[in-house]
Amino acid sequence: METHFGYYITGKERTEEISTTEVRCTENHDHIVHPKQKFCGECGAMVGPVTVTEQRTLWYDDIPDEDITDHLIFPEYCDAPAGEIIAVSNYGAGGLDIDGHDYNEIAIDNLEEVKRKHFEEFMTKHAHDIELLKKYVYDDVEIKYGFVSYDY
Ligand SMILES: [Zn+2]
């Protein structure tokens, strides 16, 4: 279990519709046909090119020309609601990572000042990443400050 205190990113998975043309039974796309058959063996309808539409869930690998996985960690967030994503800095920017220690004690005297410093760090490293996530793969992208624990 990893723990992180500071800035992190949340968002919702976005889906896109993909249409492809395939040779299938024109009456029921699930009937099994051979592309060289003229008629469907199950229902007798014509076999020919049909448009098949599928929903696909986008993910960070869909961001063109950007190895964003080097910049952010997207944990397998076991108990997160379905369709929601979370990301923390892979540089430790914007917060405190408390991993693999038996004991931690962190007193914060001036939360506002710590928060401001963390925000500067986080945005210096990740402002561009956040824009890419919003543009290409996730909806409702938000930057939050708080405590996250996750399996990685
Ligand atoms: Zn058929």
What ions, cofactors and ligands are bound? zinc ion
* Averaged pLDDT: 89
Number of domains: 2
Strand content: 35-45%
Q: What is the string of helix and strand elements?
A: EEEEEEHE
Helix content: 10-25%
- The total count of helices amounts to 1
Tell me, briefly, the overall form: elongated
Let me know the largest β-sheet.
5 strands, antiparallel
Spans with pLDDT under 50 lasting ≥5 residues? none
Q: What structural class should be given to the helix and strand makeup?
A: alpha+beta
Terminal-residue CA separation = 7 Å
Model description:
The chain is of the alpha+beta class and 152 residues long. It has two domains: 2-14 and 60-150, no CATH class; 17-56, no CATH class. Helices cover 18% and strands 39% of the residues. The protein has one helix and seven strands, in the order ββββββαβ. The chain has one helix spanning 111-137; strands at 2-13, 15-25, 47-57, 72-73, 84-89, 95-99, 138-150. The strands form two sheets. Strands 1, 4, 5, 6 and 7 form a five-stranded antiparallel sheet that branches. Strands 2-3 form a two-stranded antiparallel ribbon. The longest helix is centred in the last third of the chain and has 27 residues, at 111-137. The chain is elongated. Bound molecules: zinc ion.
